[in-house]
Design goal:
Elements: H1 2-50, E1 54-58, E2 70-74, E3 94-104, H2 113-126, E4 137-143, E5 157-164, H3 176-182, H4 192-199, E6 206-211, H5 217-229, E7 236-242, E8 261-265, H6 269-282, H7 292-302, E9 308-314, E10 332-337, H8 345-354, E11 357-359, E12 364-365, E13 376-379, E14 382-387, E15 390-396
Parallel strand pairs: 1-4, 3-4, 6-7, 6-9, 9-10, 10-11
Antiparallel strand pairs: 2-5, 3-5, 7-8, 11-12, 13-14, 14-15
Length: about 400
């Protein structure tokens, strides 16, 4: 009798376990089935709009305005999974104008419709609002020049082109040309400042000190364009613009008191443009040297809580007030504009003495203070040496080409 009861209890327990497992399997099957039906619904909606897309053929896709008016969602050649979905965060306050699905026509003769529909379904999962917006232009872009050896060198995925949400724009007398660049209506002729900011997205709580003499308008407009695009990030706190003296005769300019310096909080783009226009209207620089250090010191006085000090400087112009560098109490990050062959050593020494860094269109030099006397550093096509704690230009590097 005792054995019978034990056997009965064991059998009952085993049966309960099997029933529990059965319900777990059924639950998973039910969830899978529901997800499958939902996916079919999304896919069906995607199929409906897919047939309405325009199709263009090009040899190879080239980005235009990446980081300014475009972002991309990347996929692999033969897959539909999106590698970088978080990129869409930068479009949340933008007006989406066009979405392109870029793929390769390889192998030749292959029908890519099914794969592309899966790609669209993936996009719809993370951004369903795009598919409800009738103002967005959709386009299939088929790249035709790729071969088996370079198919992975071609871009595959979505390119999203956007503009700013329509806003009230204040008319600024004399600032039309500058405003066109800032509002994205005209492209800047040089992208030094934009590229430096794009490489250093961790910069925060910034004071921008910028040379605003005549030759620097293009570069300062890039600062304002970046500020306008990223205004909601609230990383740029204030601006200081300088023009080296407000048309004071060169013979009357005094080191540390040259003047022509204007400052403003970064409250809204139109007030900042207005101060920028006032700066350039009141003076264009005069002789070569500029009052960079005087402007930095005023900025540190007016905005003592800022942590990241950025100087936008003209590599072709010397600083008239380098004797004042010792008064600077924070590291200076120098964005050098107009660098063609070699860097003006005055700015190298400013960065080194303040514990800061140098930034050009191509590279960031962040460890200058660690160099010792006698050490050399190659920057671009030039070599510099530290002598007496200061940078000196040593020689230019020439790449010789020998013919056979």
């Amino acid at each position: 009798m005792y054995k019978f009861i034990l056997s009965f209890l064991s059998l009952t327990l085993l049966l309960q376990v099997k029933i529990h497992k059965f319900f777990i399997v059924m639950k998973k099957t039910f969830i899978f089935f529901i997800n499958f039906l939902l996916m079919c619904g999304v896919y069906a909606q995607t199929v409906d709009c897919f047939d309405k897309f325009d199709t263009v053929q090009i040899f190879k896709y080239k980005f235009k305005g990446l980081g300014i008016t475009q972002c991309y969602l990347q996929m692999s050649y033969s897959n539909y999974k999106i590698f970088n979905p978080k990129v869409l965060e930068i479009t949340r306050d933008k007006k989406i104008e066009k979405i392109q699905l870029v793929y390769t026509k390889y192998p030749s003769g292959t029908n890519h419709a099914y794969l592309n529909k899966r790609r669209l379904a993936e996009l719809q999962k993370i951004a369903p609002e795009y598919f409800k917006n009738d103002s967005i232009k959709w386009e299939l872009v088929e790249q035709t020049a790729c071969t088996s050896t370079d198919v992975y060198n071609y871009f595959h995925g979505f390119v999203i082109t956007y503009g700013q949400i329509e806003e009230i724009r204040v008319h600024i007398p004399g600032g039309e040309g500058l405003a066109k660049i800032v509002y994205g209506e005209t492209a800047p002729t040089d992208s030094t400042v934009l590229k430096v900011f794009e490489r250093n997205l961790n910069w925060d709580n910034m004071l921008i000190v910028s040379d605003f003499t005549g030759s620097m308008t293009c570069y300062v407009s890039q600062v304002l364009l970046w500020y306008h695009l990223k205004i909601k990030d609230d990383k740029i706190k204030s601006f200081v613009f300088f023009n080296d003296g407000d048309r004071t005769p060169d013979s009357e300019k005094v080191i540390g008191a040259t003047g022509g310096i204007y400052h403003t909080d970064a409250e809204n783009i139109d007030s900042v443009i207005s101060v920028a226009v006032t700066t350039i209207s009141n003076g264009s620089g005069g002789d070569g040297p500029e009052n960079d250090i005087e402007a930095i010191l005023l900025g540190l006085e007016k905005y003592p809580s800022t942590e990241t000090i950025i100087l936008i400087a003209d590599n072709k112009a010397d600083m008239r007030d380098t004797l004042l560098i010792s008064k600077i109490t924070k590291p200076i990050k120098v964005i050098l504009c107009g660098v063609e062959d070699q860097i003006n050593v005055q700015y190298l020494n400013l960065a080194r003495q303040s514990g800061g860094s140098i930034h050009t269109i191509e590279e960031d030099l962040t460890d200058l203070v660690s160099l010792n006397d006698g050490e050399q550093i190659k920057i671009g096509d030039a070599i510099y040496i530290i002598e007496g704690g200061r940078f000196k230009f040593l020689k230019k590097v020439t790449n010789k080409v020998y013919s056979m």
